[in-house]
Amino acid sequence: MSHKVFIDGEAGTTGLQIRDRLEGRDDIDLIRIDHALRKDADARRACFEAADIAILCLPDDAAREAVAMTAGLSVRLIDASTAHRVSPGWVYGFPELTPEARQQTAAARYVANPGCYATGSIAMIRPLVDAGLIAPEEAVSINAVSGYTGGGNALIGEYEAGTAPDAFLYALAQSHKHIPEIMALTGLGVQPVFAPSVGNFAQGMAVSLPLHLGGRRTLSSLHTALAERYAGAEFVRVREAEEVGARVDPTALNGTNMLDISVHGDDAAGCAVVVAVLDNLGKGASGAAVQNLNIMLGIDEGAGL
Q1: Which of left, alpha, beta for 24 (phi over 0: left; psi -120 to 50: alpha)?
Q2: Which CATH number fits domain 116-283: 3.10.450.30, 3.30.413.10, 3.40.47.10, 3.30.360.10?
Q3: What's this model's pTM, rounded to 2 decimal places?
């Protein structure tokens, strides 16, 4: 059986990578829109009407308009924008998040694809909050570095033209668009200090969570809580620090839908750093969308990944 899928906004970075993962699959029939009609409301609505599932790869306002456009249609939606990640009626599309998350995604009409930084942050923090190793009222900080493709076409153009710096920090006013979903999905009651940065590489991401140790919180207990949460997960691995090595490479998982988590530090010093590595265009965007699509269609979760 072939499932009909429409990518609204397939010309963007995320849309192109989703298309690349779906093209050639005999179980997917991609509905295409003429490039000249990609902003024509009637043409787009016809594509939505013909699709079983549509994936929105649009700016936030355009994604909201697309959802309104599908009113009265039976099409199910995956939204890759920020617009609906904390909206009522939308399932957050991180199927490894909780024991119930995969079933919720499978049954949902509306699925919000997680943000890239948020994927790494939530993957580390939520299991530790659930295990009582991070208190909801604890003030934590999150540091991250991403490849420049996460910044959209304008930033990609700067790097390709050689006019961007080798690295820079940004969003230090603590209003980054991923903070609301991090707050909503981790169980934290205090906004974390978030310091993202961009490096001179196209894809890849490392997100780090510094923690002081003490009491029940040891390197071993952190690792155990994470390993137990993701036991059996196809796309999330909890690795030993020795296996990862002294240098964490944010590009190590490029081209995959994997997310690796490791715990580093020293019990005697009382300090730890939990690190998540993923491809910001893989598990952080396009790969996650395809994984959610597969789950919603009731087929092999790893198809095309």
Answers
A1: left
A2: 3.30.360.10
A3: 0.94
Rounded Cα–Cα distance for residues 34 and 38 (Å) = 6
The count of other CB atoms within 10 Å of the CB of residue 230 is 18
Domain limits of the chain? 3-113+285-297, 116-283
3-state helix, strand, coil in the chain (%, to 5): 35, 25, 40
Matching residue, tokens 């697309």: 66
Helix (H, G, I), strand (E, B) or coil at 53: strand
Q: Which CATH number is 3-113+285-297 given? A: 3.40.50.720
Domains 3-113+285-297 and 116-283 alike in fold: no
- State the DSSP string of 248-290: --TTTTTTS--EEEEEEEETTTTEEEEEEEE-TTIIIIIHHHH
Active site residue 47: no
Catalytic residue among 47, 57, 116, 271: 116
pLDDT digits (tens, 9 = 90+) for 187-203: 999 999 999 999 999 99
Name the phi and psi angles at 36, rounded to 5: -70, -20
Could you give the CA distance from residue 144 to residue 142 in angstroms, rounded to a whole number?
7
Rounded Cα gap, residues 5 and 113, in angstroms? 16
Q: What is the pLDDT of residues 151-180, one digit of tens each?
A: 888 999 999 999 999 999 999 999 999 999
